[in-house]
Design goal:
The chain is of the alpha/beta class. It has 2 domains: 201 residues, Rossmann fold (3-Layer(aba) Sandwich); 109 residues, Rossmann fold. It contains 12 helices and 10 strands. Helix 2 packs across helix 7 and helix 3 packs parallel to helix 4.
Length: 340
């Protein structure tokens, strides 16, 4: 199979990202040797997995002569924050349609604070209306900007579509180099999956670059059947637009939906325990919406004996630190006493 020629993109991320072993935590858990791909370090404020996808999506928007970006997500959406900041950097007007998850504070925090700081137009909708009228709301604002004489580009949730797939095809190419330098052939490659685009890119990239491991998306919402359908849809869109040398129907889409907990964006005390454990042992910061749920699932698989000692297991850290800031009250960190 020939390696693909990636389409033009904007150079917005700091890549390749670091790759290293988590030896202290691996010894603590007593299972496989854990490795981490630090995609939480793709940039500073625009950090995380979304920027890899947006490099391709925003390139298409710019090529099409668009001047306005419209996208949507949860109130603490990493994707919306990255779009707002990158849009400001590139001179786009950005309009965010956000879903109120019932955690809206009078003073914005975390990702939402950065959305406002970047100058994005923000419309916040009740959760029920966001879900039932999502397509209509996007179309309303698209028509609104056309009527104003602007040229809008609508980005799907998470920038997860055929354009965004390329972001994690490119990451798979980096991982092939990472594995070669570390002289490992990992058994499994884990990552959080919330909108499906990262999983679509890694799944296709694993085939294109002959990665030796299974790619497993740790669901943070919905279920296995939903993600298998969504990821396949993104891959079909990718194939229809770019005709890559891969049969997307033959790709295995593997999803673990056993560690979602109460629902999207809702983390149990166990998740916050995992956040504290990983920070205390490795200095690695996870977030309660995505990365900590995925990593908690890896720990669960180790404790259940499904990940063997002596094997290599890789975790793609997709970022989310600003979402953690918005849930700081759940970390159990009290105000420090002052020395007199």
């Amino acid at each position: 199979m020939s390696q693909p020629v990636l389409p033009a993109k904007l150079d917005l991320a700091r890549t390749p990202t670091p790759f290293h072993a988590l030896d202290t935590l691996s010894a603590r858990l007593g299972g496989p040797r854990l490795w981490v791909k630090r995609d939480d370090l793709t940039e500073c404020a625009s950090t995380g997995n979304k920027i890899r996808k947006l490099e391709y999506t925003l390139a298409r928007a710019r090529e099409s002569g668009c001047d306005t970006l419209i996208t949507s997500g949860g109130l603490q959406s990493n994707h919306c924050r990255a779009t707002a900041l990158l849009g400001a950097r590139l001179g786009f007007k950005v309009h965010l349609l956000l879903r109120d998850e019932g955690n809206f504070d009078e003073v914005p925090d975390g990702n939402l604070m950065l959305d406002y700081l970047a100058g994005a137009e923000i419309s916040i909708y009740p959760k029920s209306r966001f879900f039932t009228e999502h397509a209509e709301l996007l179309e309303h604002w698209r028509r609104h900007y056309i009527d104003e004489g602007r040229t809008p580009w609508v980005i799907p949730v998470g920038a997860s579509d055929g354009h965004g797939v390329w972001g994690y095809v490119g990451c798979a190419r980096e991982l092939a180099d990472d594995f070669a330098r570390a002289r490992i052939a990992p058994e499994v490659l884990f990552h959080a999956t919330g909108s499906g685009g990262t999983q679509a890119g890694l799944t296709a990239g694993a085939r294109l670059y002959n990665l030796p491991c299974r790619v497993v998306g740790m669901a943070v919402c919905d279920n296995e059947a939903y993600f298998q359908k969504k990821v396949r849809s993104d891959l079909r869109h990718w194939q229809s637009r770019y005709d890559p040398d891969v049969d997307v129907e033959s790709l295995t889409i593997e999803v673990n939906d056993h560690y979602i907990g109460p629902g999207y964006g809702v983390a149990t005390e166990e998740i916050f325990e995992t956040i504290r454990l990983v920070a205390e042992t490795e200095g690695l910061v996870l977030d309660p919406v995505y990365s900590a749920k995925a990593f908690h699932g890896i720990i669960g698989e180790i404790r259940a004996g499904r990940l063997a000692r002596g094997k290599d297991v890789v975790f793609v850290h997709t970022g989310g630190i600003f979402g953690l800031m918005a849930q700081r009250d759940n970390l159990g960190i009290t105000r420090p006493s002052r020395e007199l």
